[in-house]
Amino acid sequence: MDEMLAIVQPLVMWMSRTGIGYTEFATALKPLFWKMAMMELERLERKPSDSAVSLLSGLHRKEVRTYREELNMDALQVQQKREHWGKPSAASQVVTRWLSLGLGEEIAYSGAQTSFESLAQSVSKDFHPRSVLMEMVRLGVAQDLGQHVRLLKASFSPDAKNKEASQMLAVSVADHLSAGIHNLLSPDASKFLEQSVFADGLSAQSIERLNAMARELWAQALKQIVQAATQMVQEDAGCAQPHRFRLGLFTFAADQEGQPALSNSSSDPKP
């Protein structure tokens, strides 16, 4: 229980700062506890009786019996939202490919072998390149120069006031936590990569240097992974059982009292 409380402490802080209280959150958790109990019983090949679900989830049997259909619907909606949020927008994918290809800060909108039009169309043909550019301009990551387009940020990090920022955080943290929990509960042969490096007794200047080093390493990893994944996506088009993949890197720094210091985080958009 102590380990789980340590994990949810930053989440509780986020909720406190955004006006979500205990009662509201506890009520919203019920469908998730119901859904996870159902999944666990299915994994164990046991009958999902009201008593069994109540025992695993901690929900009262009357609640399980009365709200079974409603909770199932809510749980499915949460899962569908997570799956939807896990798919980066066309704007995000264009920025990622732009960086991975090392195209520089400015490219031609059209005409050139590697233009913004060709870049946007390589990501998705469902959106007109001009619409994608307008969205990137709105998010503050690109500038429309008419015949050329300039990239204004080295990574796709939406403004904190933008809903997409919280959605990106939600799916990234959920996948990170899922990988760690999977590794705790699964055989050694099926473990995901989930490692970190820790150091203390550092000055603020050292933190700056380590953050800069991490950003450089991320830029290298981003380029290699996106190029490889882009080719694999094309090769695997139409495969029988499609899977999704996420690679992430983050840094965090805090003083000895636990207060956050200068930190940098990189998201991991899909190519």
Q: pLDDT under 50 segments (min length 5)?
A: 263-271
Q: Element order, helices and strands?
A: HHHHHEHHEEHHEE
State mean pLDDT (0 to 100 scale). 82
The coarse overall form would be globular
Radius of gyration: 22 Å
Number of helices: 9
Strand runs, count = 5
Overall structural class, as computed from helix and strand content, comes to mainly alpha
The share of residues in helices is 55-70%
Q: Please state roughly what percent of the residues sit in beta strands, choosing from under 5%, 5-15%, 15-25%, 25-35%, 35-45% or over 45%.
A: 5-15%
Layout: helices, strands, pairs:
Blueprint: H1 2-17, H2 22-43, H3 50-57, H4 61-85, H5 90-100, E1 106-108, H6 116-123, H7 129-139, E2 142-144, E3 148-151, H8 163-185, H9 204-235, E4 249-250, E5 265-266
Antiparallel strand pairs: 1-3, 2-3, 4-5
Helix pairs in contact: 2-3, 2-4, 3-4, 5-9, 6-7
